[in-house]
From TrEMBL:
<feature type="domain" description="OLD protein-like TOPRIM">
    <location>
        <begin position="333"/>
        <end position="374"/>
    </location>
</feature>
<protein>
    <recommendedName>
        <fullName>OLD protein-like TOPRIM domain-containing protein</fullName>
    </recommendedName>
</protein>
<dbReference type="Pfam" id="PF20469">
    <property type="entry name" value="OLD-like_TOPRIM"/>
</dbReference>
<dbReference type="InterPro" id="IPR034139">
    <property type="entry name" value="TOPRIM_OLD"/>
</dbReference>
Amino acid sequence: MNYEFLKYYFKKELYVENPPLNMKNFIEFCDKRGIKLTQDKLEKFEKSGWFYPIFRVKDFKNKPRNIFISLDFQPEHHNDFNKLLNEGYIFLPQEKDFMEFSKFFDKKARKRKFESFYSTFQIYHVIELLKHDPKNKNNIFFDSYQIYIEKFINLLIATQIYSPYGKSNGIYFYPNYGNNYHGKIKKYNLNEALDVIGAKEDDLYKTYFEICNKLEYILGSRFAIQLWKNIAWDKKDDCKGPTRLGIEYLQWAEMLKECIQHHLGREIFDVDEIDMSSEDIKNNIPSKETGRSIRGCRNEDFTNEITGEYEFNNHQKRLFYLANYLNLNYHPKVVVFVEGKTEEIMLPMFLKFYAISCDNLGIEIINIGGVSNFYGKNIRIKDENTRKYMDNIVTSYKHLINYNLHKWQALPYFLGDDENKLTERVLEGRVFDLKELFEKFDGRNIKEIEKKHPESDKEKYEKMIKEWSHVWEYDFELDNYTHEELQKAINEVCETNFSLEEIKNIYKHPQNGEKKGLKILGDIVEANKIPINKKAFKNLVKYYKETQDESIFDKDIFKVLDKIIDMAIFNPLPINTKHSMSNVSELGVYLMNGKDIYKRDKYEL
């Protein structure tokens, strides 16, 4: 940094977006990123003439000794900084004789006489110096490298007004002066900044190229780079070591990308798409890229053939595809709707018996608290204009099922008893809109499907519902435990002494067909329904471990779980737009023809 650039730095308040660090904080900054730096090393580098802080501040006359602590780098100090610069209190250390760092602090007066400030970008220079001791290199090599590295650092400092874009994951964290930031960006003149540091526009693309090429080496694959881009900043900032250094470089790359895009007025290649020369970054249009380049492949894989949308630029869709590629199950593959607390609690326990986690397999269980909640309830609302009451329907799940299935490929599964006529409600279209669902798939991808076995809509619906639902004959515990298992669990939990005959009597229906369930045994049993189920399950697991009796898997609950697991396994969530459209097409074949969802890969389109 020269004096003209230092004046420009304070005049344009470049310190606001990326404040400089004093020596202590700069050393800590480097240490957090896996770079071991000490005050002695900084002193050695400065004495050798290879590395300096971007500026140094001399103690003020007749000012409190803690002046350096009280100053912060905010816009309100603009005039103060310019005055200090003009009066020589802020200066460039390379323009002064070398001073030992021990003289920066007056021990007798207990007062700091000098404070050094470094840019975060200078860690790049420190890394190179730690790799190569200047004393072991000839002056010609290091002189030429010094010119390069100084221009590299100066360019980053000159464009750091865009650093808030680097510290984002799609949500930008602007400096404390809020809306004025956009005005500052609007007034920013890149050509002026480049002139001040003696750089050309091509140097901007070369620097972007240089930083981007280091990202994959530090952070891993380009998929990992995209993942890090979208992780919340506070989470990224907690990282340490080489990973945190990689995130730092990613921040710089994102900063330069935004600067270049603002300058060119168009999109440029993303930070993980730089498989080209720096000239191509400037001259080539990413949306027109074809062939086997990274962006060419993305243009092919992420462009919706129907709408023409490039979905890689859709933040929500890009995260969805990225998470699917990394098997993070960002969205569930199967949403299991249950009617009560028992199923909500017990299903994950039975899955765990299979050594399966709902989250890992992409299964989400939602307790709807009754089938009527699918299609909502009628309410009366008074119209403010006519003063008349109007009937309205508030619905919670009906349209959500269609939306999740069509957009995110999340298959619904319905589990409950037949007391509320679940199957009939589904077939009536009151649980989710079958007509809308079929029309969406038919209208988008399946123009002409050969129907080898034409069937009425009702028959197709019935096939689909049969695959996507299970109705208990009685309820969860009565369907899945034997009389003896249930008797043992009830008596152990409730400390009762029910006979086997009393347990069998639960299964007998009253004449009116109403199901009583466990509550027929009294309030204490009804109140302990969940603990009874947990105890029965625990006893079942213990029995299997002791006997290895495979007959327990004949229980309905295991048949249900097998279906749900198959739906999750054979429902591969898409990793790009092309994959998504293929999946939608295959799913449409199933919906329109009643094909087996678990084996849909065998059907050719």
